[in-house]
């Protein structure tokens, strides 16, 4: 059987200790993209484009931002031989300062520096379609106990807690935090879709 680009990227990431989304996150992203017929995705944090390929293989076009030179170069190499070349748009820049040309995304997936989650959310929410979903990865941050880690990690855990508080008190977004992979938050604005989204998330979780 032919090894797909996705399998190659995953194997390379494991060998070289490059972070990638966990299998459960992979499954739920695929399910949400298929169920909501998501066509246009923005990703913050490409790494070597594993998650971008996962989302493209479910039928979405993906714009993805990475600031690390070597990871961007590796992603570019993988994309050259990929079946999803025309669907994935690699952007080499810092997402904190990047000026995006596209907008109206159906899904924004934030998977970059954990300490900047609020900043990313506030900046990129304006690029989301009113019916779109905002998903953030690593909400649990390995379930670390703040009392048993060193100061920098404790600071990071505090920032993630702040982000959760930010989500729960957000005036226009509803959020669910789900215990999948390393913890995911799923947020959306449109209240009319509330029941649909909750039941679809529930069904998706039961299927995985
Ligand atoms: N989504 C990837 C994994 C991303 S790992 C996958 O599942 O395959 C997080 C990545 O975010 C790292 O490669 C890091 O360089 C990048 N990153 C962190 N902060 C960033 C920023 N401000 N702008 C762009 N990329 C950033
Ligand atoms: Mg992640």
Descriptive terms for the model:
about 210 residues; alpha/beta; seven-stranded mixed beta sheet; binds magnesium ion
Give the SSE map:
Elements: H1 5-15, H2 23-35, E1 40-44, H3 50-57, E2 61-66, H4 69-80, E3 88-92, E4 105-110, H5 117-124, E5 128-137, H6 151-168, E6 174-178, E7 184-188, H7 194-207
Parallel strand pairs: 1-2, 1-4, 2-3, 4-5
Antiparallel strand pairs: 5-7, 6-7
Bound molecules: S-adenosyl-L-homocysteine and magnesium ion (MG).
Task: Write a structural description.
Helix 2 (23-35) crosses helix 7. This protein has a seven-stranded mixed β-sheet with strand order 3-2-1-4-5-7-6, sandwiched between helices. The protein has helices spanning 5-15, 23-35, 50-57, 69-80, 117-124, 151-168, 194-207; strands at 40-44, 61-66, 88-92, 105-110, 128-137, 174-178, 184-188. The chain contains seven helices and seven strands. It is an alpha/beta fold and 208 residues long. The model has no long low-confidence stretch (mean pLDDT 92). It starts with a helix and ends with a helix. Helix content is 40%, strand content 20%. It is globular. It binds S-adenosyl-L-homocysteine (SAH) and magnesium ion (MG). Magnesium ion binds at residues 19, 21, 111, 137-138.
Please report the total strand number as a whole number: 7
Main β-sheet description: 7 strands, mixed
Distinct small-molecule ligands in the complex: S-adenosyl-L-homocysteine, magnesium ion
Secondary structure: helix percent: 40-55%
Count up the helices: 7
Q: Which sequence of SSEs, written as H and E, runs from N to C?
A: HHEHEHEEHEHEEH
Shape: globular
Using only C-alpha atoms, the radius of gyration works out to: 17 Å
Low-confidence stretches: none
Structural class: alpha/beta
The share of residues in extended strands comes to 15-25%
| Gap from first CA to last CA | 25 Å
Write out the strand line-up for the largest beta sheet, numbering strands in chain order. Answer: 3-2-1-4-5-7-6
> On the 0-100 scale, what is the average pLDDT?
92
């Amino acid at each position: 059987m032919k090894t797909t680009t996705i399998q190659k990227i995953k194997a390379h990431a494991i060998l070289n200790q490059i972070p990638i989304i966990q299998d459960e996150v992979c499954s739920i992203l695929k399910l949400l993209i298929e169920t909501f017929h998501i066509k246009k995705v923005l990703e913050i944090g490409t790494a070597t484009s594993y998650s971008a390929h996962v989302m493209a293989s479910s039928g979405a076009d993906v714009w993805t931002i990475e600031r690390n030179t070597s990871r961007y170069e590796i992603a570019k190499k993988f994309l050259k031989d990929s079946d999803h070349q025309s669907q994935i748009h690699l952007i080499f820049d810092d997402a904190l300062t990047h000026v995006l040309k596209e907008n109206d995304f159906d899904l924004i997936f934030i998977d970059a520096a954990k300490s900047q989650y609020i900043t990313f959310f506030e900046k990129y929410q304006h690029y989301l379609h009113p019916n779109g979903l905002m998903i953030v990865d690593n909400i649990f941050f390995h379930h670390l106990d703040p009392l048993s880690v060193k100061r920098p990690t404790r600071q990071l855990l505090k920032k993630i807690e702040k982000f959760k508080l930010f989500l729960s008190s957000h005036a226009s977004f509803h959020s669910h935090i789900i215990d999948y992979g390393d913890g995911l938050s799923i947020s959306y604005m449109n209240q009319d879709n509330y029941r649909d989204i909750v039941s679809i998330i529930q069904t998706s979780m039961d299927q995985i």
